Amino acid sequence: MTVAEKTQVLQKRGVERIHAAFARAQAENRAAFMPFMTAGYPSADGFQSVVDDLVEHADLIEIGIPYSDPLGDGPTVQRANERALAGGTSTRRSLELVAQVRARHDLPIVVMTYINPIYAVGPREFMRLAAEAGVDGLILPDLPPDQDLEIADLAAEYGLAVTFLIAPTSTPERVKLVTEACTGFVYAVSVVGVTGAREGSALGEVPAMLELARQYSRVPIAVGFGIKDGASANRVAQVADGIVVASTFIDAMASGRDVRPLIQEIREGCRR
């Protein structure tokens, strides 16, 4: 196989695995379930244990690299970041923990990271480490695709899909720009603000936002922020290709609750 052929195979790897996971869920008439956990939270061993519980019911899993200034995250994920960082979970250590997950599980792994940790390691080195760890895609919440000078191209070179975010406040022009830049899936934020479980409906302006995004998107659309239980997951599952759930699991762990019944409840809520 030539270098060009190997590069083409790599470029398709993460994209195809992520799209296949959404397709399997669609064939079963449900939204894909993508739970989130911060790498190294509540500890290195505790992280691996809760990931095993999450993966049992997940189609994909999102793993966050802890960062000291996570502007898009609410108090729950911020506290998880602080604890993970205090425990020594650096960016490189996060990818080592991801590699341990990959050694046990075959489902797609998507890493959420702000841009500073990528540049702190070095963009090419970060992509190399992520690919070697078995990462399939990246969620980049603070990187506007029109300001991306190298990250998306480097990600593709190493076989990693990229995902950017849209929100209810995104203009049609912005939605078009972002959705056309996504190669893994589109991350649609259900509410204006930061991550975290909320009272009331998790639907809001989501249907209109997804209708607009589907005019331009070539990839699945997952909805996150504010989904806290089976009922809110089910409302979103009626209109989205996937749901992302984060803070409610971390809150449950912090309060000493068994996370497994909540995981099962939300997975059941993904059915249409």
**What's the CATH topology name?**
TIM Barrel
Helix tally equals 12
Give the spatial strand order of the biggest sheet: 5-4-3-2-1-9-8-7-6
CATH class: Alpha Beta
Biggest sheet overview: 9 strands, parallel
CATH architecture: Alpha-Beta Barrel
CATH superfamily: Aldolase class I
Helical percentage: 40-55%
Strand content: 5-15%
**What is the residue-averaged pLDDT?**
90
The gross shape turns out to be globular
What's the number of structural domains?
1
Q: Ranges with pLDDT <50 over ≥5 residues?
A: 193-202
One letter per element, helices H and strands E, the order comes to: HEHEHHEHHEHEEHEHEHEHH
Distance between the first and last residues' Cα: 44 Å
Quantity of strands, as a count:
9
Radius of gyration: 17 Å
Alpha-beta content class: alpha/beta
Descriptive report:
This protein has 272 residues and is of the alpha/beta class. Helices cover 49% and strands 13% of the residues. The protein has helices spanning 3-27, 44-55, 75-86, 91-104, 115-121, 123-133, 151-157, 172-181, 206-213, 230-237, 247-254, 260-269, and strands spanning 32-38, 61-64, 109-112, 137-139, 161-163, 165-166, 186-189, 221-224, 242-245. Strand 1, helix 2 (44-55) and strand 2 form a beta-alpha-beta unit. Helix 4 runs parallel beside helix 6 (123-133) and helix 10 packs parallel to helix 12 (260-269). The model is unreliable at 193-202 (pLDDT under 50).
